[in-house]
Amino acid sequence: MELVVKDISKIYSSKNKTNTSLNKINLCIKKGEFICIVGPSGCGKSTLLNIIAGLEKATTGQVIINGTKVTNPGSDRAMVFQDGALFPWLRVIDNVEFGMKMAGVPKKARRERALEYLKLVHLTEFQNSYVHELSGGMRQRVAIARALSLDSEILLMDEPFSALDSQTRSILQLELQQIWWKTKKTIIFVTHMVEEAVLLGDRVIVLTSSPGKIKKEYAIQLSRPRLPENPDINYYARKIKNQLKNEVGKVAKSEFDSDWYVEKGTVLSGAGDTLGIGL
Amino acid sequence: MKKVLFYLVLVILWELAYRGGTVYFSFWNVNYFPSPLEVIKRLVVLFTSTKLWSYIADSLNTVFIGYAISIVLGILTGFIITHFKFLNENLIGLLWGLQTLPNVCWLPFAILWFGENQKAVIFVIAIGSIFAISLGTISGINNINPVYIKSAKSLGAKGVKAYINVIIPASLPGIISGLKQGWLFAWRALMSGEMLLATRGLGKVLLEGRENQDIVQIVAVMFVIIAIGILVEALVFKRIEAGIRERWGLNKC
């Protein structure tokens, strides 16, 4: 299994201007790799994931999996969305069964398998609940179970933990590492949080903003399961953040007033006589 | 309890207006201004006779046939229109226009097509409510959260399966609100149709009241018409809507 992203560009054009969202992205992903794509907001990382999923069309370039070109969404690529995107009219178990139902798996077989996947994310007790009865973290776990149920080789995750509180997030990060370990899937994980990318990824790919380009790639060679308090994670994260600093500044510049710049924002101006009083 | 009190006060005011206007100062003719007590008495009389019941049955029968036709056609056209981008972009304005057309305006048309009979009334009911249902369905589908469509696609939902499993359930809130509005339009259309064309039904009883110069009967039947409209709304649509809201978790916030 090999996933190749070849010269992908995406240009959005509206009436009076064209906006290059992605510019000549090239990637090669091996079977079983955990890839994290990180970049400032608006750098087109979600767009890239949607193109790999087949939900959006690239302006130029192509995505090739095992020698065949991607044109449509397919059952070889399962996707987990930021807010879960579970169907509120279905019970948890029916949500997990959905993909198998579409594939025509008979009722009994798919129920059994759905229960297995629910067990993997420790939610069998809630199989008959409706989506609104679950917390945000539980919903994301159901979404992961639903994606796993397609039994695809590739799992695409679009900022799946970014809407969660930080405690829930670290629990799910650990759980995802274990699921990845058990299922040996290829995971492409998009996030805007550098620490999360370093914590989870074998490789972290840093995108720059407008136009979205690959700035640098980092191989993270740390033992697993990784915990967020591991100082090595911090070391890598700092390195990547330094890379990203200019990028973030660029984005911020277009969003802040003209009298703002990154360095100024990091120093407290007008420190008074109370400075250091709590030391 | 407060509500009951509120309506009681309203009835008392009505009675006072009646007494003041007709009995004490007599600037109103008794024949043109009914008293609430008279109306209530008449309602009792009407409901103990079989005639009113059978007329109610006739009216409900007519409205249900018309409404059923418009449900089927309205939902179907809604799905067809949203399926084609070109129709979706261009046809909605026309539907809004047709929806604004008061349903009585269809009567001359209906008479030419069907003659002066129940079929014409059914036609007016169907045409009066179909656009509301159609528009409700369309907005239900157009307002589906795009992330549902995306995740359905990535889970392999396609064609008819996608419609049955995702698009229809996801657009249900919109469809139901269209059906609810459609019901109100159908009920109104029934009345305008029956007043002009019917030989039976509630509209006919209203007309009889006019012919006999019987203001009490007119007002009594108006109350019956209001009551049926509200009752259907409360017993059918409120329940369905509440069920959907419950299931989708929309009641939480």
Question: What is the fold's blueprint, element by element?
Answer:
The complex is a heterodimer of chains A (279) and B (253).
Chain A lengths: L1 E12 L4 E13 L3 E5 L6 H9 L6 E6 L2 E2 L7 E4 L11 H11 L4 H14 L15 H13 L5 E5 L7 H18 L2 E6 L2 H7 L2 E6 L4 E7 L11 H25 L6 H5 L13
Parallel strand pairs in A: 3-8, 3-9, 6-7, 7-8
Antiparallel strand pairs in A: 1-2, 1-4, 4-5, 9-10
Helix pairs in contact in A: 2-3, 2-4, 3-4, 6-7
Chain B lengths: L1 H23 L11 H13 L1 H34 L1 H16 L6 H8 L3 H25 L3 H9 L4 H39 L4 H10 L3 H34 L5
Describe the structure.
- The complex is a heterodimer of chains A (279) and B (253).
- Chain A is globular.
- In chain A, strands 6-7-8-3-9-10 form a six-stranded mixed sheet, sandwiched between helices. In chain A, strands 2-1-4-5 form a four-stranded antiparallel sheet, covered by helices on one side.
- Helices cover 37% and strands 24% of the residues of chain A.
- Chain A has eight helices and ten strands.
- Chain A is of the alpha/beta class.
- Chain A starts with a strand and ends in a 13-residue tail after the last helix.
- Chain B has 253 residues and is mostly helical.
- Chain B is built from ten helices and no strands.
- The two termini of chain B are 27 Å apart.
- The interface between A and B is medium-sized, with 29 and 22 residues.
Low-confidence stretches of chain B: none
Given the helix and strand composition of chain B, which structural class is it?
mainly alpha
CA-atom Rg of chain B in angstroms: 23 Å
| Rg on CA atoms of chain A, Å | 21 Å
| β-sheet strand percentage of chain A | 15-25%
> How does the overall form of chain A come out from the CA principal axes?
globular
Mean pLDDT of chain B: 89
Summarize the amount of helix of chain A as a percent range: 25-40%
The coarse overall form of chain B would be: elongated
User: How far is the N terminus from the C terminus of chain A?
Assistant: 56 Å
**Main β sheet profile of chain B:** none
